[in-house]
Amino acid sequence: MNIINYKYAAPRNFYRLAGTLTPWFGLITAVLLGIGLYFGLFVAPADYQQGESYRIMFIHVPAAWMSMFVYMMLAGSGAVGLIWNIKLADMLATVSAPIGASFTFLALVTGSLWGKPMWGTWWEWDARLTSELLLFFLYIGFMALQAAIDDPRRASRAGALLALVGVLNIPVIHFSVQWWNTLHQPASISAINKIGAPAIHPSMLYPLLIMALAFTLFYFTVALMRMRAEILQRERHTAWVGEIAGGKA
Amino acid sequence: MAPTLFSTSRSVFLRDLTLAARKPADMITPLVFFSIVISLFPLGVGPEPALLRTLAPGVLWVAALLATMLSLSRLFASDYADGTLEQMLMSPQPLSALVAAKILAHWVTTGLPLVLLSPVLAIQLQLPTAAMPTLLLALLLGTPVLSLLGSVGAALTLGLRGGGVLVSLLVLPLYTPILIFGAGAVAASATGQNPEAYLSLLGAFLIMALGFVPFATAAALRISLD
Predict the structure, then answer these.
(1) A241 in any annotated domain
(2) Judging by beta carbons within 10 Å of its beta carbon (0-12, 13-18, 19+), is residue A239 exposed, middle or buried?
(3) Residue B161 touches chain A, beta carbons under 8 Å
(4) Which residues, in sequence order, are CB contacts of A76 under 8 Å at separation 6+?
(5) Is A127 at the interface with chain B, CB within 8 A?
(6) Would you say residue A244 lies in a domain?
(7) Residue whose C-alpha is closest to residue A56's, from A109, A122, A100
(8) Which of A182, A221, B43, B117 is the most exposed place for a label (fewest CB within 10 A)?
(9) What is the domain count for chain A?
(10) Cβ contacts (< 8 Å) between A155 and chain B: which residues?
(11) Which long-range contacts (CB under 8 A, 24 or more apart) does A131-135 make?
(12) Within chain A, which residues score under 50 in pLDDT?
């Protein structure tokens, strides 16, 4: 039985598995995105305060959630790779970084677009926006470090250590930014109070949750696709990659 | 007598101090940078005392962050180049203790001079005299954290191309809580509020960094020298 469990830890087998799973993940992502966007943009009622412009929430909030989720995935799989020396975990961390950075960037851009009609400014040094910006810088640092190291093994291990230090620091950064903001200027977060204190109507909540699920599956789809490319890149000198490429092994 | 953990760490610490004393230019450059950056601000934003007074805490702290960051390459680079670092990795003493001694030496040769120089520059920026003790105390608590966190970045980027700019990308986002608490303490004190909460948080961060960072930096050195 153990053979079955550990079979997919081998890059070659995982490559095949990922190839089988990717279309399914992609399909479910597309369906969920379609449903979520339809209910979010057409069915959900307009907000009594924010009118139609709140609808950007259906992109903004899942993107912000994913930006944090992917960083946790990155640090978690980096730690697994660092401790147990599992190649696939290293690769997952490496391929997750650009996806997470994209989600963070999307959250920042949509936050800025949403801020213009709501707060009357493109950029507010709001606590959440600021910590999202710092998270973006953490992603960039991770990618820049890995890009600067030629040896993939050292790149993975160095990146994992940086991500772990980052994860320890993220709560401190987040609370320091919140502290800084509340003392410097009146809180402006009430306008975008997410699923927190005020109950959100189910007609808005369900599309939001569907969108969040769709974004999560999107992440896994893209991660699987990038993993396949990464496996081929790192294993390019092996016989089985040679067979796939059709060249001489 | 066999060398103990303490005697080995002490000799690493004293060696780094001696090296710094033999090449004082390396020690003075970050200080000059610190002074120049601070002198540039009034030229950029205008010499109005009220404006400078508002900006002073932030400017002093940002300049301290940048000056520390620029000095980080000195922490391991020369030991890496001449092989000393590999000897330390093979030492029977725990690497984290030796790393802690090196970080302490780095702070004594970079952070401490910054702290001592800061009141002069604070006067240039019209910081009220009442805020000076807080400035000194906040920098005393904060600059060791800058050296500590910076050592992780310095260790990870050892021997990489474009190491200097890369360190800034890795380290500056991690520095933000120090900047917020440090500048907050000085600003609170300058406006007559009690800076105690900020100073406590700085102290807490220092203790946390002291506990974790030497191990992280030692691990980073092992990765970089693998």
Answers:
(1) no
(2) exposed
(3) yes
(4) none
(5) no
(6) no
(7) A109
(8) B43
(9) 1
(10) none
(11) A131/A173, A131/A174, A131/A177, A131/A178, A132/A64, A132/A67, A132/A104, A132/A107, A132/A108, A133/A108, A134/A173, A134/A177, A134/B173, A134/B176, A135/A67, A135/A68, A135/A71, A135/A104, A135/A170
(12) 1, 185-196, 249
The pLDDT tens digits of the residues spanning A99-127 come to 999 999 999 999 888 888 877 888 888 77
Q: Give the closest-approach CA distance of B218 to chain A in angstroms.
A: 11
Query: Is B216 within 8 Å of A164 when comparing Cβ atoms?
Result: yes
CB A9 within 8 A of CB A86: yes
- pLDDT tens digits along B50-103: 999 999 999 999 999 999 999 998 899 889 999 999 999 998 899 999 999 999
Contact B170 A183 (CB under 8 A): no
Q: Give dist(CA A18, CA A237) in Å, integer.
A: 20
- Domain of A204? 17-189+199-234
pLDDT, position A116: 83
For B9, the token pair is 């760490």
Q: Is A166 an 8 Å CB contact of chain B?
A: yes
- Spatial neighbors of A116 by CB under 8 A, at least 6 apart, are A122
Amino acid at A26: G
